[in-house]
Write a structure and sequence with these properties.
The structure is a homodimer of 395-residue chains. With 395 residues, the first copy, chain A, is of the alpha/beta class. Helices cover 41% and strands 14% of the residues of chain A. Chains A and B meet through α1, α2, α3, α5 and α6 of A and α1, α2, α3, α5 and α6 of B.
C-alpha cells in the first residue's frame, strides 16, 4: 500500500536489475578475470593486525589520510596537480558519480554525455531526474565542436546550460575510443570558457596494451573545472569498493558534506595501501594488462572469423569491444537470442541515454562485448554462439 | 568559480565536519571501545582464500545471498517475520537512511523525528531538503499521542502528511530511553492507520546490560509499514561498513534500484559471515556488553560524584548518557569550555532538528556523553575535567 507514497525519482527507474549471466558465457559485465584476482591475504593480515584500531573504527569522512595521499601521488605521477586535500575517497566510483550529481544538479537539470555512454551511469543520472545533451563520438572521442554548437543552440533557445559534462576518456566504455590530445584540450578549453564542470571517468587508463598514453583531462586543467573519478576496481579488484573524486578543494569539501555514510570502509582502504606498499600493485597491473591484451586479441580474432559482417575499432586497452552490425540488425533482439544460445551480451540501446532522436536510429546496430571476464575457450565458444544467433536471424 | 553552480541541497549543509577528538579524552563520538575490536584475521583469511572469487568481484546489488539470509535469520530470531528477499544490504546504516530518504521523499517534504534525535541523521535529512515534525519523548519513548495530535493539526491546516517517521527504539541516541511495549504498539498502530512508513533504527538493541527486551517495532508490524535499519557497527565493528534495511519486498526492490554503488563490498560481507559462522559473534557480544555495562557504571558514578547538579536517567544499554543540567546552563558553551579543558562532549542543540520553538528553550540544558570509547581512567578524568569546566562557569 505504501507504494503510493514513493518519491517521483523512484519512478524514473523501471529497468530491471541486470542479470549476472548464470551458467551462460558472460561477455556482458565488466567483471575482472577471475584468474587474476590478487592475493590480498597478507595485506589484510596487516590491516587487521597492526592497523586494527584504524581499520575497524569509523574512518574519516574524506578517507584515510594515507589513502588520500596515495591517490594524490598516483595522480601526480600521471601529470595532474593534486594534493591529498583535493581527494574524497568514495565507496567505489559510482558513489562518486552519485555525490557529483548531488553536488551539482537539481531535478530537471541537464547534463552532457557521449553517445554511447557508460550504461550503468545512465540510471544513476536518471535517478536524479536529469535530462541529457547527447554528443556523438568519432575516432578522437566526444565531438567537442558538436558540443559547442549544442551549447550555443541551447543558449539561443534560452535553455539553462548543462550542469556538467560526463565523459570516459580512455578506452571508452563501451566504444573503446581513447580521446586524442587535441580533443582533450578542446574539451577542457570549452568547459573552462563556459564554466561547466567536467567529470572525467577513467577506470581503464592503466590497462593500456599498446600505443601512447594521452594526458588526462585533469592534467590539462588549470582553471579548476575538471574532477577526476577514480577506482581500484580495474587495477586491483572490484570487490574492494574503493573509489575517489579529485577536484578543487572547496568543492570537494562540499561534496564531503553530502557524504554521510560513516566514512568509506577503512579496512579495505588499508588493504589497498598495504597491497600497494608491499609491492603487489606493479606486478599485478602487468599481469592483468597482459591477460586483457591476450583476451582482446583472442576476441578480435574470433569476431573476425565468426562475424565477418561486423566492423569494429580495436581498442588499445580496457575491457570492451564495440561491434557495429550491418544496417537492419536489431542488437537488442540479437542479445536476447544470444542469451538463449548461451552467451550474455548487451545490445546497443542500453548505452544511449536515449533522448536524441537522430541517434536513436543507429543505436541498435551496436553491441558491447566484454573480453575481461571469459577464458580463451569461452571467448571462442561465446563468439561462435553469438554468430549462430546472428546467422539464424539472417536466414 | 564553479561554486556558484552548486545545487541548493549543498547549501543546506553548513555544519563543519565533526572533529575526531585529537588528544582530548573523547566522550563525543560513538566509537567502539578499542580494546574490544574483534580479531577478524581468520575470517578475512577465509574470505580472501576460499571465497576470493566472490569477495573480490562486484557483489550483487542487494547483498550476498548468504548475507541477506544471515540478516533475515537474525531478525527472525528477534521475533520479526523477515525473509532474505526483504533485505537490502547497505554500506552502513547511514547509507540505509539515505536510500530511505531517496525512496520516500522529495525536497520540501516533512518527516517525523523525536526531540532529541540521532544527530548524525539530521544533516542527512537536511541534505534532502526535508523539514521536521519534532515529537518529544518521555520515559516510555516518543510521545505517540502528541504525534497523533500533530498529524491531526497538520491535516486541519491542509498540510501534507509527513513522509516517514524516524525513530531510535532501543537505548535511544542520545537520550538512552527504550520505548515501552505499549508505546511501540501505539506507534505501529498510528503508522498503520495513517499509512506512514516507519524507519526503526536500533543499532544498540543487542547491547542490553539488564532488564527485559521489548519487541521490535518490526515484529509488531503486520501491515508492512515498518522498515528496520540494521548495522554490524555496534555488534562487531564500525569499520566494516555493513548495514541493511529490511521491509516489504516490493519497496525494498525499489530501494535497490536507487542503490547504484556497484554492490556493497562483498569482502567485508564475507568477513562478517565467516566471523559469525566461526562462532566469534556470541562471545564477542558478551564481551562488549560487559565492557559497556562497566563503562556506564563507571561514568554514572563519576557524574554523580563530580556533577551533583546534573540529573540523568540510567540507560539499560547502548553507548550514551544524556545529562540534564540546571536551568540557565548553556551546554553548547560548556562543551567548548570542556574541549579547552581536554574532554570532548557534545552540547544539546546538536541533537534537535531545531524547528520547534517550544523545544528550543530547553535543548541547551542537555549534553550527551558517550561511555563507549574511553577507559575507566579516562572516564574519571574526563568527567572531572567536565565538572571543572562547568564549575568555572558557575563562579
Amino acid at each position: 500500500m505504501l507504494e503510493a507514497t514513493v518519491a517521483r525519482r523512484a519512478a524514473h527507474l523501471a529497468r530491471p536489475a541486470h542479470a549476472d549471466g548464470g551458467s551462460a558465457i558472460s561477455f556482458d559485465s565488466g567483471y575482472a578475470f577471475p584468474g587474476t584476482l590478487p592475493d590480498l591475504s597478507a595485506a589484510a593480515e596487516r590491516a587487521l593486525g597492526a592497523y586494527r584500531r584504524e581499520a575497524l573504527q569509523y574512518g574519516p569522512r574524506f578517507g584515510l589520510p594515507d589513502m588520500r595521499e596515495w591517490i594524490a601521488t598516483l595522480m601526480c605521477d600521471d601529470g595532474a596537480n593534486v594534493v591529498p586535500g583535493d581527494v574524497l575517497v568514495t565507496n567505489g566510483a559510482k558513489h562518486g558519480i552519485e555525490l557529483f550529481c548531488r553536488l551539482f544538479t537539481e531535478e530537471g537539470d541537464t547534463i552532457v554525455v557521449s553517445a554511447p555512454t557508460y550504461f550503468t551511469a545512465i540510471p544513476i543520472f536518471r535517478s536524479f531526474g536529469l535530462g541529457f545533451v547527447e554528443v556523438a563520438q568519432d575516432g578522437e572521442g566526444i565531438e567537442v565542436d558538436t558540443l559547442r554548437q549544442q551549447l550555443h543552440e541551447r543558449e539561443r533557445q534560452g535553455l539553462e546550460p548543462p550542469k556538467f559534462i560526463y565523459n570516459v576518456t580512455d578506452f571508452h566504455n563501451p566504444s573503446g575510443i581513447t580521446m586524442s590530445r587535441r580533443r582533450r584540450e578542446a574539451l577542457v578549453a570549452l568547459a573552462t570558457e563556459r564554466q561547466i564542470p567536467v567529470l572525467e571517468d577513467s577506470p581503464y587508463r592503466k590497462l593500456r596494451f599498446e600505443g601512447q598514453q594521452e594526458p588526462s583531462l585533469k592534467s590539462l586543467d588549470s582553471a579548476g573545472v575538471v574532477f577526476a573519478l577514480g577506482t581500484v576496481s580495474k587495477i586491483m579488484a572490484p570487490g574492494l569498493r574503493i573509489g575517489w573524486v579529485a577536484g578543487p578543494r572547496p568543492l570537494i569539501a562540499r561534496m564531503g558534506q553530502l557524504k554521510s555514510d560513516g566514512g568509506t570502509c577503512p579496512l579495505t582502504q588499508r588493504v589497498v595501501l598495504e597491497f600497494s606498499k608491499g609491492g603487489g600493485l606493479v606486478p599485478h597491473l602487468r599481469r592483468v594488462t597482459q591477460t586483457y591484451a591476450d583476451n582482446r586479441d583472442r576476441m578480435v580474432a574470433a569476431v573476425r572469423r565468426e562475424l565477418p559482417d561486423v566492423t569494429l575499432a580495436i581498442p588499445q586497452g580496457g575491457y570492451y569491444l564495440w561491434l557495429h552490425f550491418p544496417a537492419g540488425t536489431d542488437t537488442d533482439a540479437l542479445a536476447e537470442r544470444a542469451h538463449d544460445a548461451g552467451v550474455s551480451v548487451i545490445g546497443g540501446s542500453a548505452f544511449f541515454a536515449g533522448e536524441s532522436v537522430c541517434l536513436l536510429r543507429d543505436q541498435r546496430r551496436y553491441m558491447r562485448l566484454a573480453f575481461s571476464h571469459a577464458t580463451h575457450v569461452e571467448i571462442d565458444e561465446g563468439v561462435r554462439r553469438l554468430a549462430a544467433a546472428y546467422g539464424s536471424s539472417r536466414t
